[in-house]
Automatic annotation (TrEMBL):
Superkingdom: Bacteria
Cross-referenced PANTHER family: AMINOGLYCOSIDE PHOSPHOTRANSFERASE DOMAIN-CONTAINING PROTEIN (PTHR47829:SF3), HYDROLASE, PUTATIVE (AFU_ORTHOLOGUE AFUA_1G12880)-RELATED (PTHR47829)
Entry protein name: Predicted kinase, aminoglycoside phosphotransferase (APT) family
Molecular function per GO: kinase activity
InterPro entries: ACAD10-like, ACAD10_11_N, Aminoglycoside_PTrfase, Kinase-like_dom_sf
Domain Aminoglycoside phosphotransferase: 41-265
One Pfam family of this chain: APH
Keywords, comma-separated and alphabetical: Kinase, Transferase
Gene3D superfamilies (alphabetical): 3.90.1200.10, Phosphorylase Kinase, domain 1 (3.30.200.20)
Length: 355
């Protein structure tokens, strides 16, 4: 377990900007954040692979800054303005989020759009097997993860001003088209498994069932900030991929992550004795979610899981492309994550075959 946002960056990553950029940021912060007082020091977190993330330390308070990465970006990617909007909208709901403070769309300050939010003390858990925890503690953390996922999907969109946060209808068709386009734009070589998975998904799109809600887009344990000493989620992090869509996309994302190898690299549960560890199996987690929301499970979960693997493969391909182009927040990590793309495509095909 690490501090919020995964801990500070490695040597060479700690500087957000040169002294001239810092001299522009400091007065902007003073003008836009109530109670801000300098001086400010900036430290880059090792996580935040898509949108570089920084801790701002001042004599009075600590803040977190999220900005778009440098370089040529894919259209609609790295939407920090959407992150800002959704977290602001959720401030008074049952979904815990960090309080956002200010959004800057003036590129003359840092060279790209950014926003600032409060720093929330807590734990980011990178390994879902929760090493060192007791079985009861593991079960409590997973129950809390399940509870908050259901809360996200039960948000009253009209009441919090998010009714227009995504287009209506055809969620999976739109998402498949979007991520296929993103994947093609960042391809670095032929991958037959990915081509076969895309074709299968195109041929097996589920019928519309009327479910439309807020979806996080990357809901997993390492995007949740837990209280320092309790299985309580203090903030859901990283809303870049959030939209209005089908709730099973988030649910399948959780199950997808657990199919990966255990440890901080794969961050999965494959091959572990979950019962002995106090962790729910896939079926139990799904059943608990459906029970919380009072809805029926689908006839088959295969499409949703296959789609989750496909989308993550497309995301990691974009990370790899940015690393090769030299525009990734952490190029070494980007290349390492990119090596998983073929395996995600294979697992997507396995999910399709197991439908």
């Amino acid at each position: 377990m690490r501090p919020a946002w995964g801990g500070a960056g490695h040597a060479g990553e700690a500087e957000l900007m040169d002294s001239d950029a810092l001299s522009r940021l400091t007065p902007w912060l003073a003008d836009h954040i109530a109670g801000f007082q300098g001086p400010v020091t900036v430290e880059k977190f090792a996580s935040g692979q898509s949108n570089p993330t920084f801790r701002l330390t001042t004599p009075g308070a600590d803040y977190v800054l999220r900005r778009k990465p440098p370089g040529q970006l894919l259209k609609s990617a790295h939407a920090v303005d959407r992150e800002f909007r959704v977290q602001k909208a959720l401030a008074d709901t049952d979904v815990p989020v960090a309080r956002v403070l200010a959004l800057c769309d003036d590129d003359s300050i840092l060279g790209a759009m950014f926003y600032v939010m409060e720093h929330v003390p807590g734990r980011v858990i990178l390994d879902p097997s929760l090493p060192g925890a007791t079985p009861d503690q593991r079960g409590a953390h997973m129950a809390e993860m399940n509870r908050i996922l259901a809360a996200i999907h039960e948000v009253d969109l009209a009441a919090c001003g998010l009714s227009d946060y995504g287009p209506p209808g055809d969620f999976y068709a739109r998402q498949l088209g979007r991520w296929t386009k993103q994947y093609r734009a960042s391809e670095t070589g032929a991958l037959p498994e990915m081509d076969r998975l895309i074709l299968w998904l195109e041929s097996n799109l589920p019928e519309e069932d009327g479910q439309r809600c807020l979806v996080h887009g990357d809901y997993r344990i390492d995007n949740l900030l837990f209280a320092p000493e309790a299985p309580e989620i203090r903030a859901v992090l990283d809303w870049e991929l959030s939209t209005l869509g089908h709730p099973f996309a988030d649910l399948a994302g959780v199950i997808m992550q657990w199919q990966l190898p255990p440890g901080e690299e794969g961050r999965g549960l494959a091959g572990l004795d979950r019962a002995a560890l106090g962790l729910p199996d896939d079926a139990a987690f799904l059943a608990s979610y459906f029970d919380r929301r009072g809805i029926d499970p689908p006839d088959s979960f295969g499409f949703y899981l296959a789609f989750a693997f496909f989308r993550m493969a497309a995301i990691l391909q974009g990370v790899k492309k940015r690393a090769l182009d030299g525009s990734a927040s952490n190029p070494e990590k980007g290349r390492r994550l990119g090596a998983f793309v073929p395996r995600f495509a294979e697992l997507g095909l396995e999910a399709a075959d197991a439908r």
